[in-house]
Structure formats: structure tokens, C-alpha cells
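ugh finaly. both done.
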Amino acid sequence: MREPPMAELTSDIVAEVIAACKAGAGEAAAAIERNLGLKVKVSVGPPEKINIQDLPAGWSGGGLAVVLISGRTAAIVLLPESSGVVPSWCNNPGPTGQSKLTTLAQELGTVLLPEQYMPDDFKAGMVKSIQGALARSGVLSGAPVVPLELLQADGKKATAYLIWPSPKPAAILGAAAAGPKPPPKPGSPSKPSPATAAPTAAKSSGLAKSSSPKRLASIQDLPTYARSLLRIKVPVIVTLAEKRQPLGWIVELGPGSIIQFEKSCEDMLELSVGDHPVAMGEAVKVGDKFGLRITSIILPGERFRPVRPGRNGAGNP
């Protein structure tokens, strides 16, 4: 089970959020450049209050929504598509683009919110309607809004908006559940259901063909029992360097001792999960914290079993 957060996002922490945004403005600009390819300077505007019934004109369309979930509530960073700075690939990101959006959400969460409200989950994606996303989020009129002014190198300006609290973070990006399909129009031919069509096709051909296995498009396509395994916590370790030394040398260590490694300070760091190396990366500064930017994934080693001839000469795997 997920541990409860240290504090809950409420509408009375405006001063703390503004202080965090101002302190992390430079890191936020760097995160936007790395993940969206947009070089900007970020400045924090005066706080406002949202009116759900009378949103600004630029919020009528879609936009990029970054959801920073802290416990049962969330803060939302909205960048309207009408601002003209949302990359076109965000509408159809693909695996690489989705990874960039998730990384953007993670990095913004660490620099735009106070440390005690650090998000324990984050996601990002395009919404077709900002108004619809806010309605799904449960944000109420009077909720605080902090404008984040984005100044581009050519002098053009855009504004992102940090809004909180959202009591329904899971519904912000997800579309409404699909309702029952409408009945067929009169006179239109009805299509047989897959359950009845398959036996009919098998009878007509005299041979039942096996269906090809379904490819998983995302983690959400996994069965429920498999998704439950993803909640298991495992140790994640970043290794700077390591070396072997005699015990006699180790017992003489004390405050002020320096251990020298045969590794350059520019070399990549290794990320291990459950004592298994999974990736390489470089050290980065995230706010006043240490972070690791993954640059490559370590593929698992191939395993081979010898094929030995059996008694009858056939190979046994």
C-alpha cells in the first residue's frame, strides 16, 4: 500500500507554492527545454482565483495537462494549445513522446511544489477541452491559480497555469467511460457478434484459424492480476563507483578519510533495481536535490541452454 503523504494540497498554501515556483523557475525552464524542445524563461505571476463558470477565452480549446498527484489530491499545470507553444507531436506522442511528457511531469513536480507536498505520482497528456478536464478534475471556483509566464527567445510570450487542489486526479486525462452503443438504425444490416461470427466462419471454411496474439499497447492493457505486481516496491540504487579493499584498510577509515576510485567524474552512473543493473545515466540537479537522467537502458543478457543428443539421437532442449 502507498504510504500517506506528509501533507495534503489545500487552497491555503498559496504563499508556499509561489515561493517554490520562484525558486524552481530556472529548473522548470530547463525541464521544458529538455522535454518539449522549447527554450523559455519562466517567471511567476501574481496569484489569481479560478472561476469555473467564466474561464478565460484561451481556455476554450484543448491543451497540455500535467497532473502532479500528492496523496488523494493533485495540482494541475495547464498549457493551452491556443498559446501556440505546445509541440504538435504532443497530440500523438508515441512511446518516446510519452516518455518525454512523463519526465516533464516528474521534473515539474519536484520544482513547482513545496517539498512537503512533493508528488508521489505524475502524468501528462493532451486534453481536447480544458474546460472538460477541469470539470472532471473536481476543481471548484475560487481555487488558486498561479500563472507561469513563458518568455521565448524571440520575445513571444505564453502562459501556463498551476491550479490546485483537484480531488479527482485520475479523471483529468481520461475520457469519460464509454456508454452503451446506440441501437442500429432501422433498415441497417446488423453485424453478428464476435462470439457467434467465429463459429460460423469456422463451419464455412471447415477449419478454425487461431487468432494472432494481442500486442500490449500500454501497461493499462495488462490483466488486473499482472498490474497488481507493479505496486510492489523494490530498492532502486544508483552506484557512483565501487572497489575492493582489505578489511585492515577499511577498519582504519574515519572522518576525513578520502576513498579514491578508478572512475572519472564524467562517467555514467549505473541504476540497479533489485540488485540487477537496468540503465545508465548522468547526475543532474533537480531543485536542491540529486537526480539521475537516464541515457541508456541495459538489455537483459541472453540465456542459452545446451542442446544434448538423447539416447535415440534426437536433441533434448
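ok and the 2nd:
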Amino acid sequence: MNRVVITGLGAVTPLGLDVPSYWAGLKAGTDGIRPIEQFQRETLNQKVLGEVKGFDPLKHFDDRQLNTLDRVSQIAVVAAREAIKHSGLSFEGELADRTATIIGTGVGGQTTIDDSYRRLYGDKNPRVFPLNIPKLMVNAPASQISMHCGLRGPAFVVASACASATHAIGLGYQFVRSGLSEAAVVGGAEACLTYGSIKCWEAMRVMAPDKVRPFSKDRKGMIIGEGAAVLVLETEEAARKRGAEILGEIAGFGMSADAKDITAPDAGGMGRAVKAALSDASLNPADIHYINAHGTGTTANDRTETEAIKAVFGGHANKLSISATKSMIGHALGAAGALEMVATIMSLREGVVTPTINYLGLDPDCDLDYVPNEARDMKIDAALSNSFAFGGLNAVLAAKRYQ
């Protein structure tokens, strides 16, 4: 089995359009939840979202390319380009044939769907753009990355709701570890902030009106976000041979299904995925210093995730630093795990745990250390990144500081 290392990172986020700005915002505890700009919000109860601001597709694509690129694919390709440039890899010849492209997304081309239905049903316009299908298909982000970046190996999308990106990264890790691929471009993308989708989320009554407060008393729920994040994976041997900068190591991957409820979280299912990741990484619970939590800000999720952490880690749970990236960028659904994995790798690399902002104080059901409101300097040798999805689909990555 190969050791799998990370040599490139890319991101398009509510805190910035590249990894340096994203990471600076996370460390500073910047709140990326802001008033809606992409569409009319007067008839929505929800007034704030985790939007990517200032993204201009014309800076990255020409008009002809944009005819086949929904927003979800646009930000996916931009994040992939950054990650590949960061890695220093050149995908020419045989390496392109041996590089996998695996991307997670929960929804696909939601902007294209929403715009088309508005014209068709609302404006009574029977004409439909002929390239809508390739724009909206759920596999488009992986296909577009493979085409724009010249990657000719296995390419596909994983769609498992909020666990999509973590599943995608985990599969890429397994591809490279086993030798099925020499390298992998993996991550997630989501751009589902449309009027229709937000009305549906409003109907579920799980969204907070203003702030995301994971694990805090008086938390009111989640807030939907968008974004993309991509990682380049390769074997340690290949990275060292070419003198690449190694950012961190993926050490293990765990999955499970609750097999109980389509929306309600289950501590048992969460715990099984965490245990599987630890086992795959040959790590003991006491080896983990930090957890980037799923931490949505809903009453049920945060309570259940805390219960699962306690069940797996026992007394060591009280020594863990746990934080929720979603407090700053919202819940990017299928992209969330990738955005959080980029944050986890940067935490390992720089020895900084990003905060859980908007924290108001202890909830009796959430009584662990959630790194409230301010970043924390600490050495981290090993960390977990948790993703727990609707449908009871759980995925956890274990990462180590490279040494």
C-alpha cells in the first residue's frame, strides 16, 4: 500500500476565491454569512446565505465555454486549476492517463434547472437552451475538470448529500493507496443557492435567521452555503521523487450508513464511521488532537455528533479541540467535506485550529471544547474531518501532519 500525501489545494469560498484568502478568513474568525445578492430576496424569509461573492466567470472562461458550464462547474474547475498549479504537477503523457478525477456534489447544476423552470413555467417561454442537459447533469463538475485540466483517468461524481466530497476524497485516497491511480484530483463543489432551492430549505424549518452557532446554546439551525475545494493526491514516493512540497498525509477513511432515518442523525452510525477511519489509519483515539466537526448548527446534529465523539473517544473527548468551519461559511452540502478537509490540512500544517464563531456559551448537551470564537495555536499530529449526511450516510477522513 502506498502512503498518500496532499501536494495541492484549491478553493472558491464565501471567505475568498483562493486558498490563501480562505485560510486567512478562517484563522481570523471572519463571518462569511451575508445578505443574499444572487437573486431577489424580498419574498424569502431567509435573508442571509454563505454566498461566494465577487466571482466573475469571464475572468476564467470565454463565452463559448460558459455555454456548457453551470456555476457549480465553473467554481469546481477554478478550484481544480488552483490545486493543480499549487501541486506543480504537469498532466501530460502517461500521468494524465493514470490520474483520477473524483468530485462530490449533492445537487448538480441547480442554477441551470432553476433558471430554465422559471422561464418555462413562470414566463411561459417554451424555448429551452439546447445545452441545458450537459450543464445541469450531476456529473458535470468532474467531467469539466477532466476536460479543462487534461485528466484522462477514471472520472466520476459522488452524490451522497452532505457526505459527497468526503466520500470523493476518500475514494481518491483509496485509488492512489492501492495503485489503481498514480494521482487523484478530488474534492467537492456545490452552487445550489437559487430562489427555488432556498424556498425548499425554508419549508424544512432547519435554517437559522442570521448566524450559525454550532454546539452553542441558543443555536437556531444551519445556513446554506456554496463553494468548491479540490485537493491533489499522490503517493509519497512520487511526491518526494520530484521534490514536491508535501502539505499533509491522508492516513485513513471510514464510512457507514445509519439505516434508520432519512433526516434524523444517529450517533451509532456516526461513531462507526469514526472508528472505521481510526482503524484504517492505525490510529488510537488518544492519537487524535483535533476534529473538524460536521457541526451544522442544528439542535439535533450538534447534540448527536457530541454524543458520538464521547462514545468513541471516552475520557479523551474532553482533551480534543473541536471546531465547526460551517460557522463561518455555512453548509455547502456536497462541497462541505472538501472545504473542511482543506481547513483541516492547513490546521495540521500551520499548527492553528480555526474557531467556532458566534458561540454564546455552553449547551448542556454539547459540553466539549469547541474552540469558541478565537483561533488556537497548537501542534496537531493527527486530525479527523467528519461528514454526516441526510439519508444516514457517514464519511470520516483521518489526516496526519507530514513528517
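summary for the 2nd one i guess: The mean pLDDT is 97.
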